[in-house]
Amino acid sequence: MRKLRSAVFFAALLLASPSYAARCGGDFNSFVAAMSAEAQAAGVSPAVISQALGGVTQDPAVLSFDRRQRGTFNKTFEQYVSTRVGPGRINIGRQMLQRHAALLSRIEKRFGVPPQIIVAIWGLESDYGKGDIGKMPVVRTLATMAHDCRRTELFQGELLAALKIVQRGDLPLRDLIGAFAGEIGQTQFLPSSYIKYGVDFDGNGHVDLRHSIPDVLASTANLLHVSGFKNGAPYGEGTANFEAMREWNRATIYRKTIAYFADRLVGQ
Fold first, then answer.
1. Is residue 89 predicted with pLDDT exceeding 60?
2. Which contacts qualify for 157-161: CB closer than 8 Å, 24 or more apart?
3. For 79-96, b where at least 16 C-beta lie within 10 A, e where not — what string?
4. Count of domains in the chain?
5. In the record, which residues are listed under signal peptide (predicted)?
6. pLDDT digits over 150-162, tens only?
7. Of 163, 208, 164, 158, nearest in space to 186 by CA
8. Backbone angles phi, psi at 86, to 5 degrees
9. Is 249 left (phi over 0), alpha (psi -120 to 50) or beta?
10. Single residue among 185, 210, 226 that ends a domain in this structure
11. Whole-model pTM?
12. What CATH number is attached to the domain comprising 99?
């Protein structure tokens, strides 16, 4: 599952990112101090910065894992889908479609994304919230990745976004845990996507992508909606909706798996 999740962040690599002042490499504490200044300039409170970055250390396991994540999708579609979409996952997905039918209907009306696409993504990313959604402290993970010079601007931006999630009160720092590239929640949003696409669909005043199923599913639909997904149109390879799913994951094999899974959920 982690290999699949790690592919999500590759979508961000080709997106434009602003320039940040913190210099990668060198002394880690100096880097964190520079990032703290960046965060305060971006409107994050000194209290949140101190709580999140005070005493933070590097995590060598994060860098080791990242360096192994090359060629994740090196299987054929048939090989890959056979490991991701089996009878058990399909059956549970159909149960989720029924259990959350009213919620998914409201989401479809608002965002124009069919329930089977949302549930397919939910199933692939976290087994409908029951699977492993990561146990890594997100701030430590992102600080480690940002200090590494290979993609420092990307991960500096994600680190600032993670601090803003705490600043907004969406998740407390103790609950800001995720996967090996900082992905958060039941459908594995990077912090920048959390900020950009997150929806408070349960109406409690917070976007909680770890615990709130309404927020999780609506935010997933919102990402696709903003990316141009059109309801009622086909979503298989070669279609406009298939291209709209690039914002979710640029890997063709993964998007084909979403489409295949969605079709199985509705008996096609």
1. yes
2. 157/17, 157/18, 157/20, 157/192, 158/12, 158/182, 158/190, 158/191, 158/192, 159/35, 159/39, 159/191, 160/20, 160/35, 160/38, 160/39, 160/42, 160/44, 161/190, 161/191, 161/192, 161/194, 161/195
3. ebbeebbeeebbebbbeb
4. 2
5. 1-21
6. 999 999 999 999 9
7. 208
8. -115, 175
9. beta
10. 185
11. 0.90
12. 1.10.530.10
56: its two tokens: 């933070």
Give the 3-state secondary structure of residue 136: strand
For 191, the token pair is 């912090």
**Does residue 95 sit in the same domain as residue 124?**
yes
Is the same domain home to 173 and 155? yes
Catalytic residues: 125
Would you state the structure tokens that stand for residue 161, as one six-digit string? 């976004």
Residue 191 resides in a domain? no
Q: Which residue has the tokens 């909706």?
A: 241
**DSSP 8-state symbol, 211:** T
120: nearest Cα among 243, 220, 12? 220
CA distances for 2 relative to 7, 134, 163, angstroms: 9, 8, 23
For 68, the token pair is 């192994």
Looking at the DSSP assignment, which residues form a beta bridge with residue 136? 178
| pLDDT digit string, tens, across residues 188-245 | 999 999 999 999 999 999 999 999 999 999 999 999 999 999 999 999 999 999 999 9
Cα–Cα distances in angstroms (integers) from residue 256 to residues 46, 81, 90, in the given order: 45, 9, 16
Residue 231 counted as domain residue: yes
Does residue 92 sit in the same domain as residue 110?
Answer: yes
- In a shared domain, residues 230 and 219: yes
Q: Residue 165 in contact with residue 39, Cβ under 8 Å?
A: no
Tell whether 39 and 87 lie within a shared domain: no
CA dist 46 to 6, 33, 226, Å? 31, 12, 33
Domain range enclosing 7? 2-69+134-185
- For 171, the token pair is 């998740």
